[in-house]
Amino acid sequence: MESEVIAIILIQSFWLILPAYTPNSFAVIFGGGAPVDGGKMHADGRRIFGDGKTWRGLISGIICGILVGSLQIWIEMQIDYANFIGFGPDSTGFIIIILLPVGAMVGDLLGSYVKRRMDKPRGAKLSVLDQFDFLIIAWIFVLIFNWQWFFERYIYDIHIFGLIFIIVLTLLLHRFTNIIGYKLGKKKEPW
Ligand code: CTP
Ligand code: MG
């Protein structure tokens, strides 16, 4: 494959997943205050989600994700580059840039729910789940809404290069935003 083709695939992979990446990062920055579970305990005597999942983080994360996605669609409408496939200006694209951030934040909540059931305190590390919970649920939301779009964009268009790139990028971004969150005093642990 030509290097230009690979470059387009990588940019496109990043582009199509960006509205799912942004919510977690913004939740770390804007999060805090009242927890989503209201401090309530599950039947097992442990917190439902824990203090790391707040309403402010959830709402700001979703709004920022949708804003980023909307900006991307706007940018797509300004450029006229035939080789690049983005979300597109039709209603499908708009629904997907909403589903990706909502799915990401639901996935993040589910991840914490699973961690609490495993008796892991807030901030405890749980490799794979910590890094990929948001991505998996965001993808499942898109898959349920429009499986043809999912397979075309995330499998066929971006090839194996794009998928590997997304996995590596997810690991790096998770690390990077958590270090920032730690430095800002939002997180007790830098992971
Ligand atoms: N955050 C938030 N609200 C959310 C998600 C995240 O306020 N819905 C903020 C919290 O300050 C949280 C930080 O972002 O501590 C990092 O998120 P994450 O790593 O997902 O939370 P942890 O504190 O590690 O908690 P958990 O063990 O539940 O993952
Ligand atoms: Mg964490």
Describe the structure.
The protein has one domain (3-183). The N and C termini lie far apart (36 Å). The chain has 191 residues and is mostly helical. It has six helices and no strands. The chain has helices spanning 3-30, 55-78, 91-117, 129-145, 147-157, 159-183. The protein is elongated and about 55 Å long. 34% of the residues are buried. Magnesium ion (MG) binds at residues 123, 130.
Q: Give helix % range.
A: 55-70%
Structural class: mainly alpha
Number of continuous helical runs: 6
Distance between the termini: 36 Å
CA radius of gyration? 17 Å
The count of strands amounts to 0
Secondary-structure map:
Blueprint: H1 3-30, H2 55-78, H3 91-117, H4 129-145, H5 147-157, H6 159-183
Helix pairs in contact: 1-2, 1-3, 1-6, 2-3, 3-4, 4-5, 5-6
Residues 123, 130 line the site of magnesium ion.
What features would you highlight for this structure?
binds cytidine-5'-triphosphate, mainly alpha, about 190 residues, about 70% helix, binds magnesium ion
In short:
The protein is an all-alpha fold. The protein has helices at residues 3-30, 55-78, 91-117, 129-145, 147-157, 159-183.
